Amino acid sequence: SRTAVAPLERMKILLQVQNPHSIKYNGTIQGLKYIWRTEGLRGLFKGNGTNCARIVPNSAVKFFSYEQASSGILWLYRQQTGNEDAQLSPLLRLGAGACAGIIAMSATYPMDMVRGRITVQMQTEKSPYQYRGMFHALGSVYREEGFRALYRGWLPSVIGVVPYVGLNFAVYESLKDWLLQTNPYDLGKDNELHVVTRLGCGAVAGTIGQTVAYPLDVIRRRMQMVGWNNAASIVTGEGKEALQYNGMIDAFRKTVRYEGVGALYKGLVPNSVKVVPSIAIAFVTYEFVQKVLGVEMRISD
After folding, report:
1. Tell me: the pLDDT tens digits for 74-86?
2. Membrane topology for this entry (predicted)?
3. Which end of the chain lies in a sparser environment, N or C, as judged by fewer CB atoms within 10 Å?
C-alpha cells in the first residue's frame, strides 16, 4: 500500500517544504507531471525504499509497546479502583495506543528524517545527489550535523499523535454508532457493520484526524531540512537562503509570517487522496496473504 501511493507521498513532502521564492510545483497533477518529465519513473518513487524499510521496526515496536502499555495501564487502573476484574475502557485503550505510537515513532524517527531528505533531494549540475541511500544518509547526517539532527522535528510529531489518534478514535466510533443506529442502505447486519463499511469509517476518521494534525506534519518536514547545507533548489530556491528555524514555535511563526496560514496545509490534497487507495490496497493485500498463508484470523478479530 505504501508503494502504490508513493508518488502522492513524495508530492506531499515536496509541496510541504517548497520554497515560496522558487515555485516548481503548483499542484498535485502538475507536480507529478513535472517529476515524470524531469526525473522519470524512478523519481516518483524516491524515498519509498526507506519508507518501506521503516515499516517492520515501527510495527514491531508499536505492537510490543502497546502490549506493555496496556498491561501497565490496566494494572494501575485495577489498583486504583480495587477491582481485580476491571478491563480497559475505550479511553484507556486510546491512551495505550497513543503511548505505543509515540514510542514507535521515536524509535524509528531517524529513518523518517532521512526519508524526508532523500525524497526531497534532486540531482542537478550544481547539486548532485548527496545521499545514496538510507544508511548513507543516516551516517552523513550523524557525522556532519550531530546526533540531535536525526531528531529534528520530533516534538511536533509527538504532539501531532494526540489529536490524530484521538480524533481517529472518536470519529470512527461515532460514525460506526450512527450507522448501526440508522443502518442506511443496509450497511450492517446483526448489530455489526460490514467489513467494507468499517474500512470506509476508518478512511473518513483517518482523513479528519490527518487534516487537523496536518500543520504539525508540515512543520516537522520543514524542521527536518534545517542544517542541510547541500539542499537542492526545491528547499532553498535559486539564489535564496533557506529559512532557519530555532524550534517548533519559531517554525510556525516564520511559516505563517512569510507564507500565510495556507502554507500550513501545503500538500494536503495528495495526502488526502492517498488515504482511500492506501487502506483499500492494504485490505486486499491482507486478505490475499491471509489465504496464501492459511491464516484463520479475520480483520474483525
Report:
1. 999 899 888 888 8
2. Multi-pass membrane protein
3. C
